[in-house]
Amino acid sequence: MPRNIYQAKIDNLPEELVRSAEDVSTVPSPPGHPFSRPEQLKRMSKSVPALPQDEVSGSMTSICSGDFGNLEVKGSIQFAVEYVNSMKELHVFVAQCENLAAADVRKQRSDTYVKIYLLPDKGKMGKKKTVVVKKTLNPVFNEILRYKIEKQMLKTRKLNLSVWHRDTFKRNSFLGEVELDLETWDWDNKQNKVLKWYPLKQKTAPVALEAENRGEMKLALQYVPQPIPGKNLPTAGEVHIWVKECLDLPLLRGSHLNSFVKCTILPDTSKKSRQRTRAIGKTTNPVFNHTMVYDGFRPEDMMEACVELTVWDHYKLTNQFLGGLRIGSGTGKSYGIEVDWMDSTSKEADFWEKMVNSPNTWIEATLPLRMLLIAKISK
């Protein structure tokens, strides 16, 4: 039986990588695939992403969405916290707010809700929120928001309550927050179980979130030029991405973690550009040993493209962002257009430069994961 296209290429790969061939997610397209002819992309297999040049996307969406600077922070919030041992649940009783800032200055009112997190979990799985109470600066909620969590785990958490205005277009504006360190919280003190008023404060969580350790990724990159024999045409090559393992990933759901890695080569944000590893459960140090191949790169494209790698925790029907990398030139521009995603750190940019300057050679690095503004995927 003849070998498939990818099998014919693995003879020169490291022995460690050959053993993971069953995990390889793509195969290279036929030799001579022109990078600069978008009409040929439509005939490509969806499992072989390439980087089209007919458009550059600068569209971004934030992991932590919302407007943090437009409205004054004032007023206070009344709430109480209690751990119910019989249910193994943390209960947060959100009672009311008073003297909030007015999002609608003319009518002196806001449409308000309260959102809570158990930091460092800043994702959808850890988010709880009240209903929206409209047209008042003194909203009454009287809601109990619950977390199923072992009491011992609360010693590693901070309770963050934030107040928000939500307008008719579902845009959110920050009105203030309160944060309690549960490591030192006295659960036996009856006074801590009664309703108390807390003054709302300016936003502090984003700073803490940026500084938070999100773990590391060990990986290797290789640029493989593919000149066309006998023709004086630009070289079209491949970028090989070998995701080896992640180290010290954060736990967002107690002691559970089921992580995987997604990859996109920006500026291509189409779905066919997205590849991923399998999910690895029950460890904060998952070993993926997974390669991804993207073709259609000319030498001049290497300064314009960026490898976006993101790590996710899969739970039931949702995926929670853990951290990511952007490996590229870090110039802030792609094909002459300013884009937010060309924001590589110095370590990420140095890694990319070493790969570009060392064709046909695996370049390895261990890089810290960080918060990212994730590029929207186009159809």
TrEMBL record:
Compartments (UniProt record): Cell membrane
Domain C2, chain residue ranges per copy: 73-198, 213-342
GO molecular function, one term: neurexin family protein binding
The keyword Mitochondrion appears for this protein: no
Gene3D superfamilies: C2 domain
UniProt entry keywords in alphabetical sequence: Cell membrane, Exocytosis, Membrane, Repeat
Start and end residues of each stretch annotated as Disordered: 21-40
A Pfam family per the record: C2
Keyword Membrane: yes
Name listed for the protein in its UniProt record: Synaptotagmin-like protein 2
Upper lineage: Eukaryota, Metazoa, Chordata, Craniata, Vertebrata
